[in-house]
Structures are given as C-alpha cells and as structure tokens.
Design a protein that fits this description.
- It is found in: Cell membrane.
- It comes from Actinoplanes regularis.
- It catalyses: Mg(2+)(in) = Mg(2+)(out).
- Mediates influx of magnesium ions. Alternates between open and closed states. Activated by low cytoplasmic Mg(2+) levels. Inactive when cytoplasmic Mg(2+) levels are high.
- This protein is α+β, with helices and mostly antiparallel strands and about 350 residues long.
- It has 2 domains: about 5-265, CorA soluble domain-like (Beta Polymerase, domain 2), CATH 3.30.460; about 280-350, no CATH class.
- The protein is built from 9 helices and 7 strands, in the order E-E-H-E-H-H-E-E-E-E-H-H-H-H-H-H.
- Helix 6 packs antiparallel against helix 7.
- The longest helix has about 90 residues, at about 225-310.
Length: about 350
C-alpha cells in the first residue's frame, strides 16, 4: 500500500489523478506523461521504482538514504537528480530537505526525503504541492516532464531565495544592534552572528552544487533545444541564488568584523585601565615601603641610645662604670656614636 502517493496523468486536456494500479497502462500510452509524487520511499515505493519503472538499484537506494550533497546520474532513458532546499531549525540548525527526481521521456517521478523527524510534511512537500496547485487552477500546463521538473525546481529555488531573505532580516537586526550599541550579551550575540553565517553558507552550498549539476545537464547531447533552455534557465537561477548568498555573507562578515573590532578596542581599553590601576597601586606600594624603611631606620637609630641607657639604668651592684669618673661621658658618647653609625649605614643604603 503506497500511502500518500499522488499520480497525475498530464496531457493537453488537463491533469487527471490515477492510482498505482494504472501506472503500467499510463506509461504505455503515447500521449501525455505521468507524474508520480512519492512523499516517502518505503518498501512499497521502492518496489514500484524498481519493478514498474526499472530504475537502477543504486538510484532507488539513493531515494531511501540521505544524500548529503546534490548529484545527478544520466541513464539510458532517464536522468536521476538529487537536490536540497533549506528549512530553518532550532538553534540555527539548517535542515536539508531532499528532493529526488527521475526525469524520463514520458514521466516525472519525485521522491521526498528521507528528512529529519523535526521537519513537517508540509515543509517537505512544499515544492511539489505548489506545482500541483498551479496545475489544478490552470496556471501551469507543462507539456513535458522537463517542463514540470522546471516548475518544481523553480519553486525550490524560490524557497532558497526566501530563506536568504529570512536570514538577511536577521542580519540587518544584528547590524542595528552593533551600530546602536545595544549588545548586552556578547557571547550570545556572537552565537547569533555565526548562526546567520551558517545559514547563508548552507544555502550558498546548495545553490552552487545544484548550479554545477544543471550546467552539466544543459550540455548533454540529444537534449531538445527547448528542454536545454529550460535546464539552462534553472542553472542561471541557481547562480543567482549563490550570488545572493555570497553578497549577504560578505555583508554579514563585515558586521562580524566590525563587532570583533569593537570587542578588541574595548578589551584594549579595559587592559589599559587595569594596567594604569596596577601601576598606581605599585607606586603606592613602593611609596609605602619607602616610608616603612624610613620609620624602621629611625626606630633603629633611636633604639641604640635607648639600649645603652637601658643597660646603665639597671643599677646592678657590680657595675664598674657607675663609679668610673668617665662613665657618664662614655655612655653619652657611645649613644652618639651608635646613633651616628646606624644613621650612616641606613643613609648609604638609601633608607634615609
């Protein structure tokens, strides 16, 4: 049971929905072509791709597994193309919404995913839903599978452009915060800047690789001129998306550089202020040390006479100097000599 698969037979008289049971008959008809849109390549869808269409097993495997980069393979009767569209996720993550296409002479098979579980079905089927709605209201009448593929891929490119517009709005808001001096949390602000840069780089990579694919497809031999122009137009649109992303990325890089310069200037000024404060503290500490040395020196100078006076003030019984006629002059002279000697020593050592 193929759940969610939509099958349209598209001809001059319009588009008519069908079921999987009608595929063999539809593919055998000479008029019109068939569009099969598969929302998810499960086992049942893989059997249809392999048994009904006879696609290469590696191409079918490519529909069932994640393809990290766009790619194309040219087979004998069809072309297999893998493209990606961006979808914003949480915390700056960019989801790569995969769209696989098998483009044949009388059919177009589009396969979605596999995608991250966080991606909604509406987002995953955005491009094919838009093309189907245009067919239903008569605004799109594709005559060939290549023309229908052109419409689907054009919708994918518009989504890439809308994503760039979304990121650009964020970039402008970030730039206004920088120039207005409204950044209060530098770490969180830098995170927002680099998330925006990541988004632009992601869509730029998608467009650049897809541009290379379609430029190569436009050079394939045997491609009718009208279809070659359609493929070339897609390549030109991918080139435009890449240039848009490059321009906004350069603008954002200027904002990042400006903010980093502001941070460097602020850091330099803060370091200079801190150095000045350290210098002032050092000078104060040095001056305090000088004062302490002076106080200590004078304390030592006055301590020497005090020591002599203290010794002679003990009044012990057996002190010869007490009855010596020159005892008093000797004590005074000793005090003076000791004080002057200490003064000379401290002076020589620049303590005074």
């Amino acid at each position: 049971m193929l759940a969610g698969v939509r099958i349209l037979r598209i001809a001059e008289d319009g588009a008519v929905p069908h079921t999987v049971a009608d595929l063999d008959r539809l593919l055998a008809e000479d008029t019109g072509f068939v569009w099969v849109d598969i929302p998810h390549c499960d086992d049942a869808a893989a059997r249809v791709l392999s048994d009904t269409f006879g696609f290469h097993h590696l191409a079918v495997l490519g529909c069932r597994s994640r393809n990290r980069v766009p790619k194309t393979h040219v087979y004998g009767d069809h072309i297999f193309v893998v493209l990606h569209a961006p979808e914003p996720g949480e915390r700056g993550h960019v989801h790569y919404l995969e769209l696989d296409q098998f483009i044949g002479a009388n059919y177009l098979v589009t396969v979605h995913g596999p995608n991250n579980p966080a991606v909604t079905t509406a987002a995953a089927e955005r491009e094919t839903r838009e093309a189907r709605e245009r067919i239903d209201n008569g605004r799109l009448r594709p005559a060939t599978p290549v023309a229908l593929s052109h419409a689907v891929v054009a919708a994918l490119i518009r989504n890439q452009e809308e994503y760039i517009e979304h990121v650009t709005a964020d970039v402008w808001a970030l730039e206004q915060q920088v120039t207005g001096g409204e950044v209060t949390e530098p770490e969180a602000f830098l995170t927002d800047l680099y998330r925006a840069r990541h988004g632009l780089l992601s869509v730029r990579t998608m467009a650049a690789l897809s541009d290379a694919l379609y430029t190569h497809m436009a050079q394939l031999s045997g491609l009718p001129e009208g279809q070659r122009r359609a493929v070339g137009d897609i390549a030109d649109r991918f080139t435009r998306v890449r240039r848009l992303a490059d321009g906004q990325r350069e603008y954002l890089q200027g904002v990042i550089g400006f903010y980093q310069s502001l941070l460097m200037v602020r850091s330099t000024m803060a370091d200079q202020t801190q150095n000045e404060r350290v210098h002032e503290l050092t000078e104060a500490t040095y001056a305090q040390n000088e004062e302490v040395k002076k106080i200590s020196a004078w304390a030592a100078i006055f301590f020497a006479p005090s020591l002599v006076a203290a010794v002679y003030g003990m009044n012990f019984k057996h002190m010869p100097e007490l009855v010596w006629a020159f005892g008093y002059p000797f004590a005074v002279a000793l005090m003076i000599v000791a004080g002057m000697t200490l003064h000379w020593v401290f002076k020589r050592r620049d303590w005074l």
